[in-house]
């Protein structure tokens, strides 16, 4: 369809396209530059210093370009470039010569809130209902936890409960006589969502 000519001695090492599909970024060596190619006109729009990148990846916004630089700071590094202003933003030095770079998917956050009924002070043997309300996800499971002793790792209360209509709930009448630290942890069933945990709720169970 088209051929884009780069300066003499520009040996292309890797290429990525921004999410909008408007610009391709080509890393070159030994002329250590990144060339931004306008895909509407198939011409070089601008170029940036790259410090020897051999592989690259671009973030979902198209604003930052990450490169595996094998000669930065006299050793290998993963570097980042601001594509909007062509500014070299720095690098993380690593041993050896990195040859690839990849970015993970962008995940959306969720929130989990826990309500306990009855709240406050109850007596031993009372049926207590724990209800977790999850926002930011339509499906997944909630694991409820109880820590009856300060400084002790929380213990799961039963098995994970599926979320339905944004909530998950369990009932229990086996809370020991003590001040408890109840909590709920949500695990999504859909990729691209983050797990979340509630703040602790501390009911008191009297004899």
Report on this model:
This protein is about 0% helix and about 50% strand. The protein has about 210 residues and is mainly β. The protein is built from no helices and 19 strands. The mean pLDDT is about 85. Strands 12, 13, 14, 17 and 18 form a five-stranded antiparallel β-sheet that branches. A four-stranded antiparallel β-sheet has the order 1-2-3-4, with no helix packed on it.
What distance separates the N and C termini?
81 Å
Helix content: under 10%
Please tally the helical runs, counting DSSP H or I stretches of 4 or more residues. 0
Radius of gyration: 27 Å
Mean pLDDT: 86
Assembly context of the chains: single chain
Brief descriptors of the model:
mainly beta, 5-stranded antiparallel sheet, 207 residues, single chain, 0% helix, 4-stranded antiparallel sheet
Layout of secondary structure:
Layout: E1 10-17, E2 23-30, E3 33-38, E4 43-49, E5 53-58, E6 64-69, E7 76-82, E8 87-94, E9 111-117, E10 121-123, E11 128-135, E12 140-147, E13 155-156, E14 161-162, E15 167-172, E16 178-179, E17 181-188, E18 196-197, E19 204-206
What's this, in brief?
The protein is mostly beta strands and 207 residues long.
């Amino acid at each position: 369809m088209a051929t884009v000519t780069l300066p003499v001695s520009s040996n292309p090492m890797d290429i990525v396209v921004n999410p909008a599909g408007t610009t391709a970024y080509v890393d070159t060596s030994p002329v250590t530059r990144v060339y931004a190619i306008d895909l509407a006109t198939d011409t070089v729009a601008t170029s940036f210093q790259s410090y020897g990148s051999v592989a690259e990846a671009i973030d979902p916004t198209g604003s930052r370009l990450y490169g595996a630089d094998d000669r930065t700071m006299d050793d290998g590094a993963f570097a980042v470039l601001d594509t909007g202003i062509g500014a070299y933003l720095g690098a993380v030095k690593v041993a050896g010569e990195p040859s690839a770079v990849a970015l993970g998917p962008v995940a959306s956050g969720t929130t989990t809130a826990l309500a306990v009924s009855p709240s406050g002070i109850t007596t031993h043997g009372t049926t207590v209902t724990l209800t977790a309300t999850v926002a930011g996800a339509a499906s997944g499971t909630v694991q409820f936890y109880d820590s009856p002793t300060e400084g002790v790792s929380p213990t799961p209360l039963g098995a994970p409960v599926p979320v339905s209509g944004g909530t998950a709930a369990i009932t229990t009448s086996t809370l020991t006589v003590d001040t408890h630290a109840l909590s709920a942890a949500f695990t999504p069933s859909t990729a691209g969502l983050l797990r979340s945990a509630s703040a602790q709720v501390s009911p008191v169970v009297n004899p």
